[in-house]
């Protein structure tokens, strides 16, 4: 698997506009317009959309989790959720998009959280992506199809300064490692009447599909449930094969680590995540968070 460092050369360093901590970019017109238009409708219909639950309620988006599955090992991206659908192999249009973006950013991608916003009332609250399982210092990218929505970055420092910009149809937002650590990101509800929205915000009947693509470095066997890799206790498959079965309840520790990453602009990855976790039952995690 590719390796990165916080000082790795970014292929988009020539872009004029940067966001957040200076390592995030917006790239327009990833695909020819007619191809992107077709991809929106084909992707919407080829995916079997699912619900996801968090903190006891349904999240205001429909989702699909897709990725590269190899010998029953699938990339595992953990984040606070009560339950989420199982991963499936790339659907045809998703794979076409993933392959094109890999060429653009020169980074292998093996995991996608695909989300369908049916209208302006669907949203995602402010958060930082959890990086326990994301290959360290790699970029997280979000490809947008459909109606334009506004991304909001908010600094985690006391000044709480904000940056707002549109995510247009057929654009790619590259979220750098430092920006994810030092800023929240969100897409708020847009309750404005259609007659005061811009044309690109009314396009596609207000519907949007986003593909959040990551390079994930933790893997789960989809039959046995065993984990290995960056975010697990066993860092290699060889270690996993030699491991004796040991049950350790580290649910609460992982919850606290997620909370720390979501709040601290100076989050110490090695301190909180370095030893790894084998917890994957987020229903348990959220029951702890309410006590």
UniProtKB/TrEMBL annotation:
Named cofactor requirement(s): Fe(2+)
GO biological process: DNA alkylation repair
Pfam families: 2OG-FeII_Oxy_2 (PF13532)
GO molecular function: dioxygenase activity
Domain called Fe2OG dioxygenase: residue spans: 108-223
InterPro entries found in the cross-reference section: AlkB-like, AlkB-like_sf, ALKBH3, Oxoglu/Fe-dep_dioxygenase_dom
Protein name (record): Fe2OG dioxygenase domain-containing protein
């Amino acid at each position: 698997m590719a390796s990165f460092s916080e000082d790795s050369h970014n292929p988009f360093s020539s872009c004029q506009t940067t966001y957040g901590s200076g390592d995030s970019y917006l790239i327009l017109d990833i695909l020819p317009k007619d191809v992107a238009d077709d991809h929106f409708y084909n992707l919407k219909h080829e995916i079997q959309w699912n619900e996801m639950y968090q903190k006891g309620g349904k999240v205001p988006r429909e989702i699909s989790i897709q990725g590269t599955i190899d010998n029953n090992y699938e990339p595992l991206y953990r984040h606070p959720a009560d339950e989420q659908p199982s991963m499936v192999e790339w659907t045809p249009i998703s794979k076409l998009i993933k392959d094109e973006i890999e060429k653009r950013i020169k980074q292998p991608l093996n995991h996608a959280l695909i989300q369908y916003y049916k209208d302006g009332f669907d949203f995602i609250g402010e958060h930082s992506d959890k990086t326990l399982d994301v290959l360290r210092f790699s970029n997280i990218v979000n490809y947008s199809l459909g109606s334009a929505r506004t991304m909001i970055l908010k600094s985690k420092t006391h000044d709480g300064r904000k940056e707002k910009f549109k995510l247009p149809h057929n654009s790619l937002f590259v979220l750098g490692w430092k920006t994810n650590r030092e800023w929240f990101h969100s897409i708020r509800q847009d309750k404005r009447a259609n007659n005061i929205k811009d044309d690109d915000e009314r396009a596609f009947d207000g519907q949007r599909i986003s593909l959040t693509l990551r390079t994930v470095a933790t893997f789960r066997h989809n039959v046995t449930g065993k984990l290995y890799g960056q975010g697990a206790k066993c860092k290699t498959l060889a270690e996993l094969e030699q491991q004796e079965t040991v049950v350790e309840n580290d649910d609460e520790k992982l919850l606290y680590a997620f909370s720390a990453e979501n709040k601290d602009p100076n989050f110490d990855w090695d301190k909180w995540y370095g030893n790894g976790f084998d917890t994957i039952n987020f229903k348990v995690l959220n029951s702890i968070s309410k006590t």
